User: Fold this.
Amino acid sequence: MQKNLSMKINRTSAITYFVMVVLFASIKVLLGFGVLDGIGEIGKELLGAFIQIGIMLLLSIGVMCITLKQKPLEVLRYYGFKKISWKGVVLSVLIGIVIYILNVFLSSFFNMFLGMLGYTFPEGEGMSAYPVWLLIVNLIFTAVLPAICEETAHRGMLLNGLSSARSRSKAIILSSLMFGLLHCNITQFFYATLIGLFLGYITSVIDNIYPAMIMHFMNNALSVFMGYSRFHGLGAEYLFTYAETFVANNAILGFMFIIILCVLLAFLLKLLTKILFKTTILKQLNGLNNKVLVSMEKFDYMQDLESIKNYGETFRPNQMQDFARFKSLYYSYGKEFGFTSKIKMVVGEEQTPVKDKVATAFYVTSLIILSALTIFSFVWNVLGV
Assistant:
């Protein structure tokens, strides 16, 4: 490991994300101008899968493996791919549902504001049929792949890369902003950035990326299912449709309704997040610390017996020896718990790195490109071009 590993991670993350943005933006522009219309709908779906798997997932893992000379498993552990209990999964699902409901109402309010500015919301093409197999395909391409690939790129590589040279709060804000802008759509930018802030906070506090993936999946999957329900008249979307109609026809009461509902949902979100924290990171820490301390006590006991047998008195190592043994045990058992990362431990031991102007330049350039595409898509729509 290099001495200034944190700066190396920061620069690698910045350059890799810039490459992602350039590739993603180029494909978006080509699609927008109809250059790729010849590949057909199936080709566009495969292109979307390439963006998710090839650019978002494999590039963010592969480049870091090569740069840090680490195995993929170690990089994934550094990104936050760690074991999670079934309670953590259930809580993440529930939080994902709450996020979706909040997303629906906050987006309705934001979209109403965009409509006042002259933004026209595109209507989806009518479907003659919506079989179950198509629902499954949509879930894979719209929920499963984005949850895995986009979270790996943003809450895995980008968040950790930014955190290695900045405060955690700044890293969460910047990674969330880029996550929102990456959608290159003004309507998605609003709620994607808000969701990104929450997912970044969850990942940072719990030090585990799986809850963010599950919540991301639930938000997207529920959106897909609501479309399926609306087509087949299953009724799952009626509550949202009624609420949206009420808000549209009763501006003042609708605004008050959204505020009250959001406050209640925010309180529920805080409660579920607190429980998730207790059942994941605290439980893991307690289990890991207990195992390390028991092992140290057992070692001290056997060492005392051997010392009394040979010298007639107990022998105690100095504090530095104790700390070195604790650190070794902590990392060894931490791997069993899926908790520790060799990369993160080295980064944590380093002093605060000097700001890297090269990395900053790549981050800023990525931000400018994504902002330009998002603003351009908004102006293009308003002007009716």
The chain has a mean pLDDT of 82. The chain has one domain: 5-274+341-382. The two ends are 53 Å apart (CA to CA). Residues 5-274+341-382 form one domain.
